[in-house]
Amino acid sequence: MVQRHLIIVDEQSQEDRLKRICNNLRGEGVELIYKEIDPSHCTKRQDNGDKVFDENVFIHVLKDIPFLNHVDVFATDYNLIAGQLKGIDVVSIFNRIMPFYRKRMVIYSAQIETVIGDILSGKSFEEQQAMLKLITQHEIEYLTSEGEFENKFKRLIEKEPNISLESRLAESMYAIDGEDICCAIPSFDRKSMTEIAYLLLSKDDQAIALKKEITDHIMAYITSVRTYE
Length: 229
Hints:
Elements: E1 2-9, H1 15-26, E2 30-37, E3 43-45, E4 51-53, H2 55-63, E5 73-77, E6 79-81, E7 85-86, H3 87-97, E8 104-109, H4 115-120, H5 125-137, E9 141-144, H6 149-158, H7 165-176, H8 193-200, H9 205-222
Parallel strand pairs: 1-2, 1-5, 5-8, 8-9
Antiparallel strand pairs: 3-4, 6-7
């Protein structure tokens, strides 16, 4: 059975929906493993006694998810904590933690048609540029949380995303990074796997050299001569 991993952020539990989606997917040979995060539980108390959203607590909850490096779909409601947190803020936080994530990302809302305008409204030109870069980088799916939501969401989960080889490599490098892991390409053996991942997705001259080296390694590994004994 194929496994899919989902993280969903919503102050309203989607447990009933997720159970139905799980049952439907199981009948099609897909096991859905998911984690719900309620951002209203990620708070700190101010001196006046009020509770406010604490980004650090939220990040800790995210990083504590065992399958974080293997997540297939990251989804969030857009309207989360009034005046404090919106779905685009959650996407931005997730992007900082998982900079090479290029799989499914979903924003849903009962008023989904207003989301793009809301993301860009009230911001400077520079802030709007940053937001546009963020939402185009991830090719976010925008779904209405009503009507056919469950069926559309289920189809997104079960379908393998078509992401580039470079993005897959960068994501895998970032996931295994550690002091004991090094690059086997001599010219780059002093760099960490995370540094290699960033370089792989950059556009400078060193990135071009790295891509050529990786291509040579891949070709040597995946090819053989039929008549050679």
